[in-house]
Automatic annotation (TrEMBL):
The organism's place on the tree of life at top rank: Bacteria
Source lineage: Bacteria, Pseudomonadati, Bacteroidota, Flavobacteriia, Flavobacteriales
Protein name: Uncharacterized conserved protein YbcV, DUF1398 family
Source organism of this protein record: Chryseobacterium taeanense
Length: 129
């Protein structure tokens, strides 16, 4: 089974959203089936075969997630991040500011779905692979 350390080693190679597809391939090869990133502190829950899960520690002090979603602004900031114009911390701050609570990456479907605090799906993207 995979460890948080292995995943964090793969993630250390990500400098911007442009590096995300290579990261996804690497952790899928480790056995990660999906993962859930919580914007408030960037702790991540990872899921593998046979109910296997592991969880990372918080990466920063809690951010406040806005109650209302600004979908248009979020999409604009996401596209900027994917072009490598912002770093991970800036992206998480942007998510909090626009009401995004978490995102779930499904490595079988190659999708990334962003959710608000009420659990509503705000945006679903296909991950290039």
């Amino acid at each position: 089974m995979f460890t948080v350390e292995q995943i964090e080693n793969a993630h250390s190679k990500v400098q911007s959203g442009a590096d995300f597809p290579n990261y996804i391939k690497e952790i899928k090869d480790l056995g990660v089936k999906s993962f859930e990133i919580w914007v408030k502190d960037s702790h991540t829950e990872y899921f593998g075969d046979n109910g296997y899960t592991t969880k990372s520690k918080a990466k920063y002090a809690d951010l406040t997630i806005e109650n209302s979603v600004d979908e248009e602004k979020f999409i604009k900031q996401l596209k900027s991040h994917q072009k490598g114009e912002t770093d991970y911390m800036e992206f998480c701050e942007d998510c909090a500011e626009t009401g995004i609570e978490k995102w779930i990456v499904n490595l079988n479907n190659f999708t990334c779905v962003y959710y608000d605090k009420a659990g509503n799906e705000i945006l679903m993207e296909e991950i290039p692979h």
